[in-house]
Amino acid sequence: MGASRWRTVFLWSGGVFVALALFARFSGPLPGERALYDSIVSSASPLVVSIFHGINYLGDKRVLLPATLFLLWISPAEARRQWWLWAGVMVSAPILEGLAKEIIGRPRPVGNAFGFPSGHVTAASAYFFLAAYLIAKRLNDSGGRVMVLWIAAGITVALVAVARLVLQAHWPADALGGTALGLGCVAFAAWWHERSRMAGQPRT
After folding, report:
1. DSSP label of 114
2. What is the dihedral of CA 112, 118, 123, 126, to 10 degrees?
3. What is the pTM (predicted TM-score) of this model?
4. What dihedral angle (degrees, nearest 10) is formed by the CA atoms of 190, 125, 181, 81?
5. Which of 92, 172, 176, 186 is deepest in the core (most CB within 10 A)?
6. Is 170 helix (H, G, I), strand (E, B) or coil?
7. Euclidean distance between CA atoms 176 and 71, whole angstroms
8. C-beta separation of 70 from 86 below 8 A
9. Which pLDDT tens digit goes with each residue over 125-176?
């Protein structure tokens, strides 16, 4: 995707995040949110809970922040030159998530800690969507392989989101907010990168 499309993704992601944040701050649960949460929690067997405990690590920023070095290593040379941009995604996403938690002040399903947006889902969204973007750049392909990359990234983020519900750590809107925030950070960085590439191309 070009710069204009990434700008559109960034604006849409930001809009979704702000809408969810306002809803969580002033209107309480989304329609059907409690029912969905209760359904997922009540249907999770001990084995399912154990499996999602493992999946939960895919959103642990203590794992994903060091793993950013892998993304920098696999990046193509032209993207690696802007290493600070990709590192910035993985640093800014949890910072923004923490600030949003304090501003929104929405309690988690269990306990008194703030839950919106989910930190695990924010980190997973930022990391795996960024991985899809950078690997696609390395493949230099806009066809089926890139589509598979983005689908795999989306499935991974969705699994982390479900894990946070199964483990009774977040409401569904918390997970949606984390997805939008992480994707928004990636989209902003991709927009910046694509604009820089266009600006550096010689005019004909």
Report:
1. B
2. -150
3. 0.92
4. -30
5. 186
6. coil
7. 24
8. no
9. 999 999 999 999 888 766 778 899 999 999 999 999 999 999 999 999 999 9
